[in-house]
Amino acid sequence: MAYALVFLLGALIAAGSTAALRFRPNPSRVTSRRDQHRRLLDKPRVGGLAIFLAFLLAPLIGSALVGDVADIIDDDWQALAAPLLGGAIIVTLGAYDDVWVADFKLKFLGQAAAGLLLFLMDYRIDEIGIPWGNGSIDIDTGFLALPLTLFWVMLASNAVNLIDGKDGVAGGVGVIAAVALAAVALDVGRDLQALMLLALAGATLGFLPFNFPPARRFLGDSGALFIGFSVAAISIEGARGPGGAMFIAIPILVLGFPLVDTVLAAVRRLLESRHPFFGDEDHIHHRIERVLGFGPSLLVVSLWVISAVFAAAGVALHTIEGFVMEVIAFGVFAGLVLGIIVALEYHGSMWNAPRMRPVRKGLGLGLDPSGIPTFDPTVVRPREPIVADTDDEAQR
């Protein structure tokens, strides 16, 4: 009952605050003419504030109503405070960008500060467990604990932010990932982390009806970054095994969809001789829209299904026993990645990219006619890095 109550409170608080909040970006404080036009027509970007408020209040109100919730929180207040304080930094940073547009360097700095705070409050990747049959191989990360912690939370934060190019996508992916990791946390006895993940899932679900196409409210960088940060941060403790090692493969699989999109974006931009931080309109959701011809509603549902399959593979990796079954779980992940690349013709466009010319020449091969590059130079926004150009409406 404790977990269901916190989930429900998160949804109700987020829905109420989303309906009430209506602030809009300031069109006089933008960095480009395109931003000026886009933000003059903007809808309220309140997702981050609404979700964070619900994430904060749901456990606190729940603890006042039900003794079981209070018992879970009383076990370790610091473990509850760390994601909340780090999340407050992320939401503040994202809200600033939603209103005035922040430089990507400032956003990286803020994310690093939030990650450092987590590390100082004992959310750290100090030991990694690798699934292997009925046991695991535990690796002490030593002096790499801090950079690994920072890299993980920054990667996941920006990965979720990157897929926030269409209404409803990032919110739905956040709900799926949080619920999947909550199931893992409950199974390994990480009750507080499970409670926080369900509060996050409920809060995001409460916002989602306002963001489903056609959106009436936008998630904004404050929301997308916060969802990614919170899932990554809580998974550091929520995905630990009995021996105390973090099974990093589980949250990687659960967040497989946004992580694959991020890696693909970086690789194809480098192959096209472009800066990996400069935005474009060639993400997975753009390809599905162009190649498969999906409309807004079908597009977002299809992306939720893809995310759910990745999340199921992550939970399966945790629950199954035996080396062969673990290989099968990883095989599902690899098959999904390969299927996305081939179905959306990324293999062809990357093969035809300028930086692959020496490889093609060396092998005596030409262009691949089945994968003509879909990148259009006219949509490149060289002044807008990917971490600052991933709002719901930014890619329309």
> What is the count of DSSP helices, taking H or I runs of 4+ residues?
17
Q: Tell me about the largest β-sheet.
A: 2 strands, antiparallel
Question: Roughly how many Å apart are the termini?
Answer: 42 Å
SS strand fraction: under 5%
DSSP E strands, number: 2
What integer is the average pLDDT?
85
Domain count, please report it. 1
User: Would you identify the regions where 5 or more consecutive residues have pLDDT less than 50?
Assistant: 27-41, 374-396
Helix content: 55-70%
Walk me through this protein's architecture.
The protein has one domain. It is 66% helix and 3% strand. The protein has 17 helices and two strands. The chain has helices at residues 2-20, 33-40, 47-65, 67-74, 77-100, 104-120, 145-162, 169-187, 191-211, 220-238, 249-254, 256-271, 284-292, 296-319, 323-343, 346-351, 357-363, and strands spanning 127-132, 135-140. A hairpin with a 2-residue loop joins strand 1 (127-132) and strand 2 (135-140). The protein is globular. The model is unreliable at 27-41 and 374-396 (pLDDT under 50).
